[in-house]
Design goal:
This protein is an alpha/beta fold. Helices cover 31% and strands 31% of the residues. The protein folds into 2 domains: 69 residues, Ubiquitin-like (UB roll); 157 residues, Rossmann fold. It contains 5 helices and 15 strands. The longest helix is centred in the first third of the chain and has 30 residues.
Length: 272
């Protein structure tokens, strides 16, 4: 009785090749059939569940805007591409998309939290969120929120947001609320206090000197207002050894730290 090993080598090789081709054909046919089966309308996405904060966008509007842009069915939809679709919906900062049986998608949203409006030059470019990121939205939706106005060169949103957080703490003892903060092209900072003075803070290239100038002004500002019985209208803090202020109705340049204030010809000056 002959065995497989008794067959000539070329016959054995031919049999192996034939068997391999049969398996390749069957596997290919299985894959084609499976791909065809998974692409049938039977597996179309039937619902989208939305979770997370939806302060500025409704679940209905979200589905209406994003669903027509999804490609594929429950099996074939690209979750990364779907996530990008939801990320592009206004007021959505980040979306996570998951498949949920039966034939549903679960979308978990993180909404944008607006911190301020953002301008570049004379153009309002959008809003800045609490993470210092620029995003687009209908500005009419935030008119009643009393957001401050930020301005600065392109790409400086996070830097301006960080300065806003620092100055907010600095101004807290004065009960000053920032209504506008601008970073100039030359690196100078300008602040407008809501119902209060406008401040030219100068550059923060030397962080220590910048802090010293600001703290010196804040330490003396209330005393200046009390002494002259007038509110500060504006102040220039760019001087290394003092600051200049304009009181309501009175110009007051040259205020020096650590000196006694006196009124002289309508000017507030440091006694020398």
């Amino acid at each position: 009785m002959s065995t497989r090993q008794d067959l000539p080598r070329d016959i054995r090789l031919m049999n192996f090749t034939s068997g391999a081709l049969v398996w390749v054909f069957l596997l290919g046919a299985f894959l084609v059939a499976g791909n065809w089966f998974l692409r049938q309308p039977l597996w179309a996405i039937r619902s989208v569940q939305v979770e997370g904060s939806l302060q500025h966008v409704s679940a209905t509007a979200l589905r209406g805007e994003a669903l027509p842009r999804l490609q594929g069915n429950w099996f074939t939809v690209n979750l990364a591409a779907a996530q990008k679709v939801f990320d592009q919906v206004p007021w959505v900062r980040r979306a996570v998309v998951q498949r949920v049986w039966p034939l549903s998608l679960l979308v978990t949203l993180e909404s944008q939290k607006p911190l301020a409006s953002w301008s570049e030059g004379t153009t309002t470019a959008g809003l800045v969120n609490t993470d210092g990121e620029l995003f687009e939205a209908n500005l009419g939706e935030v008119q009643d929120m009393g957001l401050p106005r930020f301005a600065g060169p392109t790409g400086s949103e996070q830097r301006v947001s960080q300065m806003y957080a620092t100055l907010t703490q600095d101004f807290a003892p004065m009960k000053w609320k920032i209504s506008a903060l601008e970073l100039g092209t030359e690196g100078n900072w300008r602040v407008q206090i809501d119902g209060g003075p406008s401040l030219d803070l100068g550059s923060d290239a030397d962080a220590q000197a910048f802090r010293q100038r600001l703290q010196r002004f804040l330490a003396l500002a209330q005393g200046v207002q009390t002494h002259y019985g007038r509110r500060i209208e504006s102040a220039d803090l760019r001087y290394s050894n003092g600051f200049a202020v304009r009181l309501q109705g009175v110009d007051a340049p040259g205020v020096q730290p650590g000196t006694t204030m006196k009124k002289q010809q309508g000017m507030a000056t440091g006694a020398r």
